[in-house]
Design a protein that fits this description.
The structure holds two protein chains of two kinds.
Chain A lengths: L22 H13 L9 E5 L7 H4 L3 E4 L5 H11 L4 E7 H7 L1 H10 L4 E6 L2 E2 L5 E2 L23 H8 L3 E6 L3 H13 L4 E6 L3 H5 L7 H11 E3 H6 L10 E8 L5 H12 L5
Parallel strand pairs in A: 1-2, 1-3, 3-4, 4-8, 7-8, 9-10
Antiparallel strand pairs in A: 5-6, 7-10
Helix pairs in contact in A: 1-7, 4-5, 5-6
Chain B lengths: L3 E4 H11 L2 E6 L6 H10 L6 E4 L3 H13 L3 E6 L1 H17 L3 E7 L16 H6 L8 E3 L4 H18 L2 E7 H4 L2 E4 L44 E3 L13 H16 L2 H4 L2 E4 L6 E5 L3 H14 L4 E6 L1 E3 L3 H9 L3 E6 L5 H8 L4 E5 L8 H14 L2
Parallel strand pairs in B: 2-3, 2-4, 4-5, 5-7, 6-7, 11-12, 11-14, 14-15
Antiparallel strand pairs in B: 1-8, 6-13, 10-12
Classes of the chains: A alpha/beta, B alpha/beta.
Chain lengths: ~270, ~375
């Protein structure tokens, strides 16, 4: 048995994601990152998810796990963290869950800088319901609800997180596994709101409709189009073309997290310790 | 504690604190805001947490998360906010998470008449969220009782692991009375697992009272909580049998304790030939109307629902057997009246008001006179 396998509820496996789906890669990366952080144990870590394909992950993971309602993972996670600050709280969400129905909670979670690590599995589509356009479906890409190509301008969730106040913001992909693990690991160790966007391939509900080929081809697309942030910054604008996109660390800051700030409120009010 | 002049909303905050509530999440809305404002001051003094969320849905989510982590929790709002909270009230029912939701009713639908009194959210309190579910709904008629009913609501939420709606109204919420409140009350503790994980603990295995002893997060039980229909393990199940049993148990854990939960304040029923049914702030007017009618020699009884749901089927039915008629004073288009008609074995008359003003005693008295004439 490989060492990270203890983090899974083996009686709940195999998972139900479609063959070729990238969600399993990110789920594994999360537990590998947790394994590397001695402050995170199976007893003191809570995994909170919303609704959607990626949010199924909580059920497979052997921690206290919470599968909330669509879009609501961040408020639930906030409640857990503020009620018991000694617990580590990791949120698993998707592009629809986090940036559409949960968009308000997402930006306010960032603003408060609650000590959560949010991993957004971005498959560019609503997978569980069969391939409808999400707020992160790229322009022109097809979905069942955008049969002629999407005209809705997509969110850049990393820019959104940074602008809203998150203190760790990074992107990686299911292809760049080592980088993805390191990115999540750094997010876990940041005391504050950490946001990691992990691009995943959805061959069934997204790739097939957009003629992106088999899962391996979709991952090769990630390899060919992702540019490390450091290199991206040096690229002249006329080279930032086509489907190229930056990955890596976008923002990191040390700021007081919400629990520490509220502890000050308790002190001013003359309150007892929790 | 010495006597203090306080508002119904403040008494709810006091009751919450004494009952052990240590976490409040909310969003500003009149006429409930004083509950949030009071707890924003009070909670940090006892090491508790107050948080103002970005919206009403998040307010429900944050208190449910805190409850799962072991805190006793409460949130408060009014009609428009309560409508938004419905999604996660259903989640609390399905996942069996203790939570108290205070609804200080105002005129609806929609933005309605901010923030004039109404009692138009009765059926929403019972059926607001989708799907079959059980719920407890309580309503106070005074500042003192707002305190007591809040304590009871928190205790029921914990004991039955259910959402409890404290259905008050602008009348009681903003009413000021001189009250002396106890420092200590009987508090129901958070239920705890009786066996260890190694002994085969399952979070949703019901205890003898049909309520499961679900571990708090962070206690090493590695539980899974979901809004999907689940079996005793907490994991979703696609089985018709599991679905049937889960929904049945959710109802029966409360219906089984109905005799204890259902609380009906009765006066003058010994000689009553007709009686007035009401709840909350409206009962204050109904009481005066009953007193006035009795002074005129009419044999009128007074029935006040402290527990709105589960509805007092048995009590109303039994009382109605000795009555010639029941008058329901509904500060809405007619909601409680349907419940009374469902169970009463005597004629039922409706006295409805929905014009953003409270009842005057004379209005109810006039309806009493009409009822007496009709059932002679």
């Amino acid at each position: 048995m490989r060492s990270y396998e203890k983090f899974f509820r083996r009686n709940r496996l195999p998972h139900r994601w479609f063959p070729g789906c990238g969600n399993g890669i990110v789920m594994k990366a999360i537990v590998q990152a947790i394994e590397k952080n001695p402050a995170f144990t199976q007893d003191n870590t809570v995994i909170v998810s919303g609704i959607g394909c990626s949010s199924r992950a909580s059920g497979y993971m052997d921690f206290d796990t919470l599968h909330t309602a669509h879009g609501r993972a961040i408020p639930f996670a906030t409640g857990i963290k503020l009620a018991r600050p000694e617990l580590n709280v990791v949120v698993i969400t998707g592009d629809g869950d986090c940036t559409a129905i949960g968009g308000n909670h997402f930006i306010h979670g960032c603003r408060r800088n609650v000590d959560l690590t949010v991993v957004l599995f971005n498959n560019n589509i609503y997978g569980m319901t069969g391939g409808q356009a999400s707020p992160m479906t790229p322009l022109g890409k097809k979905a069942t609800t955008a049969p002629y190509g999407s005209v809705d301008r997509p969110f850049d969730a990393c820019k959104l997180a940074e602008a809203a106040g998150a203190t760790y913001v990074a992107r990686s992909t299911a292809f760049h596994v080592q980088h993805l693990v390191k990115t999540i690991e750094d997010g876990l160790s940041n005391r504050g709101f950490s946001f990691i966007e992990a691009l995943v391939q959805c061959p069934t509900a997204y790739g097939r409709r957009n003629k992106m080929g088999d899962p391996a081809k979709m991952m090769a697309w990630m390899r060919d189009n992702a540019v490390m942030k450091t290199a991206w910054d040096k690229l002249p604008d006329d080279k930032k073309i086509g489907e190229k996109f930056p990955i890596g660390l976008f923002y990191r800051a040390q700021e007081q997290d919400y629990d520490a700030a509220y502890q000050q409120v308790i002190d001013i009010a003359g309150g007892a310790a929790k | 504690m010495s006597a203090r002049l306080m508002q119904g909303n403040e008494a709810i905050a006091e009751g919450a604190l004494v009952a052990g509530v240590r976490f409040f999440g909310g969003y500003p809305i009149t006429p409930s805001t004083e509950i949030a404002e009071s707890l924003a001051k009070m909670l940090p003094k006892v090491g508790g947490t107050f948080i103002q969320m970005e919206d009403e849905i998040a307010s429900m989510g944050v208190v449910l998360g805190a409850s799962l982590a072991g805190r006793k929790v409460l949130t408060a709002s009014s009609g428009p906010g309560i409508s938004l909270k419905q999604e996660l009230i259903g989640y609390a029912s399905a996942a069996e998470i203790p939570v108290v939701i205070v609804n200080v009713q105002r005129v609806g639908p929609s933005t309605g008449q901010p923030t004039a009194p109404s009692q138009g959210d009765v059926m929403q309190a019972r059926w607001g969220t989708h799907g079959d579910h059980s719920i407890i709904v309580l309503s106070p008629w005074s500042v003192r009782e707002a305190f007591e009913v809040t304590v009871r609501a928190v205790n029921y939420a914990e004991r039955f692991r259910t959402p409890v709606i404290l259905l008050t109204d602008e009348i009681v919420g903003h009413l000021r009375e001189n009250v002396e409140l106890p420092d200590k009350v009987k508090v129901y503790p958070r239920r705890a697992p009786k066996i260890s994980r190694a002994e085969g603990y399952e979070p949703y295995t019901p205890d003898e009272d049909l309520v499961p002893n679900i571990a708090n997060f962070g206690e090493g039980y590695h539980i899974h909580v979901t809004g999907l229909i689940h079996d005793e393990t907490g994991f979703p199940s696609g089985s018709p049998k599991v679905t049937r049993e889960a929904i049945k148990r959710m109802h029966e854990k409360i219906s089984r304790a109905e005799d204890e939960i259902v609380d009906v304040h009765r006066e003058f029923m010994d000689d009553a030939e007709v009686a007035v049914v009401s709840f909350g702030g409206t009962s204050r007017t109904a009481y005066e109307a009953v007193l006035n009618a009795r002074k005129r020699g009419l044999k009128v009884g007074f029935i006040r629902l402290v527990t709105i749901f589960p509805f007092a089927d048995k009590i109303i039915r039994e009382l109605s057997k000795n009555l010639r008629g029941l008058l329901v004073a509904d500060l809405n288009f007619g909601q409680i009246v349907n419940e009374v008609e469902r169970v009463a074995e005597c004629p039922v008359k409706l006295c409805a008001k929905y014009d953003m003003t409270i009842f005057e005693p004379e209005e109810i008295e006039k309806s009493i006179d009409e009822l007496v004439a009709e059932v002679k």
